Amino acid sequence: MDRVTAVDPLRTAEIIAVGSELLGATRLDTNSLFLSGRLASLGIELRAKSVVGDDRGMLAVVFSQALARADLVLLTGGLGPTDDDVTREVVAGVLGLPFTEDPAIVATIERRFARRRMRMPENNRRQAQVPRGALVLDNPNGTAPGLYIAHDAKVVVLLPGPPRELQPMMARLCESLLGARAGGERSYTTSAFVTGRSESHVEEAIQPIYSRWYDATPPIQTTILAAPGQIEIHLTLRSADPGAARARLDEARDAIAAALGDAVFSTDGRFLEEVVGDLLKARGLTMAAAESCTGGLLLSRVTDVPGSSAYVRGGVVAYSNDLKTAFVDVPADVIAQQGAVSEPVASAMASGARTRLGADIGVGITGIAGPDGGTPEKPVGTVAIAVAGPGGAEQVRTFSFPGGRAQVKYQSAQAALDMVRRGILNGDW
Amino acid sequence: MDRVTAVDPLRTAEIIAVGSELLGATRLDTNSLFLSGRLASLGIELRAKSVVGDDRGMLAVVFSQALARADLVLLTGGLGPTDDDVTREVVAGVLGLPFTEDPAIVATIERRFARRRMRMPENNRRQAQVPRGALVLDNPNGTAPGLYIAHDAKVVVLLPGPPRELQPMMARLCESLLGARAGGERSYTTSAFVTGRSESHVEEAIQPIYSRWYDATPPIQTTILAAPGQIEIHLTLRSADPGAARARLDEARDAIAAALGDAVFSTDGRFLEEVVGDLLKARGLTMAAAESCTGGLLLSRVTDVPGSSAYVRGGVVAYSNDLKTAFVDVPADVIAQQGAVSEPVASAMASGARTRLGADIGVGITGIAGPDGGTPEKPVGTVAIAVAGPGGAEQVRTFSFPGGRAQVKYQSAQAALDMVRRGILNGDW
Prior knowledge:
Radius of gyration of chain A: 26 Å
Largest sheet of chain A: 6 strands, mixed
Mean pLDDT of chain A: 92
Number of strands of chain A: 17
Strand content of chain A: 15-25%
Helix content of chain A: 25-40%
Oligomer: homodimer
Number of helices of chain A: 14
Strand order of the largest sheet of chain A: 2-1-3-8-7-6
Shape of chain A: globular
């Protein structure tokens, strides 16, 4: 990277998300969460964020006002090839920068289409229009390149809307251009993820600990967040000394983790399927599953993890009773006597998955995801989960999950993964 | 309701969400989705939305600018009793309205606390401060009342942040004060969802059609949106005549659908798994799947639809080759000769799933989701998908999907569902 000339560091930022769909009743700008975290890690304060539609006049006004207030303006979306992708054009207009077509970008986009045996539509040329003086940010995951524009003492960054294109681009910017323009103080964060406890129970357990940090120098900020299937505790600290900041945060996180015990499954941001995958890999164990009400969600989540083929044998989605019998040997009379949603059936599914698929650990899930199928004795949300290991080791539990069909499915998969995790840690299998 | 004096109707709106927690990396302003839907139903166009922290100076600037641009400004949050609840004070300051304490509000808050056998903390008096001329909006679900302020030709509304307090308050406002101030015109929308085409190809196909609508009276607004696995076309129209609006939108949507042919899978907002489910149900067909690289995602999506147990037999997640042979009868020599990722293996998985699980339609998916496992001949993203129906009917295709592991999984499931859909519509099975 070139030597950076001495200019004031970037202290404040605003984000503008562009897209009429983000003003409707169904879609939120979620990119700003990621960007906010990255800005915080550079010690740049996010002062406001806005959403505007694909509307040249409105975007020009909102962008001008943000630029007047903040050192750094990040714009996301509206970089596509169509006529309603207005961000490039409006930003160049407000900054008074003329456009030129960059032949290297045209060639890159043409190659992307050629790889998929398609020709580049003519309107994709719009994505190769570059305002004078702008740095083009390579986009390996899509056709729209990003743009970095240093303008007087300020910086304007244009990022593509799709998260998988935006995130790596922003990550690289933070390590290079933006990192070099940030000041000396940075934000540091750590987290602890918990499952199987409610938000209020977590709050009650850790409030006496984190309340001591309010008036510490520097203070540690604690945020408790209820996410699907897990409670997240985020700790944040601002400091100019990376080593001291890391040490204090580690100590704080360990105090939180000690108070919550084995309900904490991750202190490094890994999700439960990754934690379980890493445990299986470390112990050289394989797993298989027989799923009924989760319909394949458990295995789909487990196989979202790269490299999971090393420890996942496979599974069976046995929606109908005869398949439970045919594929994982659940005795038909157990289903008839106990009902398909019962601990004996979950048990038989777990051990059948284990033996029939040749895995060390078998999981069985059977329940009522709703909205139909509930009874007074077994209402919607009733789910029996069993985990079977070598030598007859077994855990089986019945849960009552709140929420709709999607929530019941997700919580069931989460609870099954947590039973596998706890069993491995306890040495049960 | 009092007779409404003749003022211009409210045509445009902006939303400002107040709260430093909404600028962090974990929490989004979700209230704006609800408010956006309500505004649309009144025919009021949401032109922008913003988030600002609990910062008097910043809120004053952002609020002034929004008020200059829009007929209606909705502010959410920052109405609590503490010092960092700044919304009331800043709005009154910008509008130049003095405060008075409303004894009726104090009495209401005191009663709420008394019901919980608590005394009202002194700082809750802040919530009884009312700018002169404001209407107080009762909050049966919390201590913070809302405020409705008619200011010159404009309207400013302050709503509490918690959704269960905000939503009923906004619903009542739409039926009364805001409804009366909205014009006779309402917004109407429809959509068409497409899969298997790129955003630019869709744009190219329909641009000649929708460009004619720009200058029509009233104009139809077209938005093209790339969502995971599908391209969405949204059409919006403002009109004072519901019947005429519906008829014009239906005609416009049919023109779009005709141009795109059977790439359009839904013109009523249903997702592909719902469309396929409805087709299976209507024809009395059942389905089963043998999944490798999708790891259960296809069946998990299909079983996200309530009532899917009527047409889903189940499936097998066969990550390892021996399970493909043991559970869905893929001949071991075909795997050895053609490779696990090949059309013959996908075919055998589809017909094996069909026969072994006793379904009318079998799906087989085998591919390389990445990031590892790619070869020069079969790079990451190569996926073979087959669908088998009664009487030996079969479709098999090989795809090259872009993106990371999650994208390859999602697009594979989407392509498989689309092959099932097209086959049903063509009468193949």
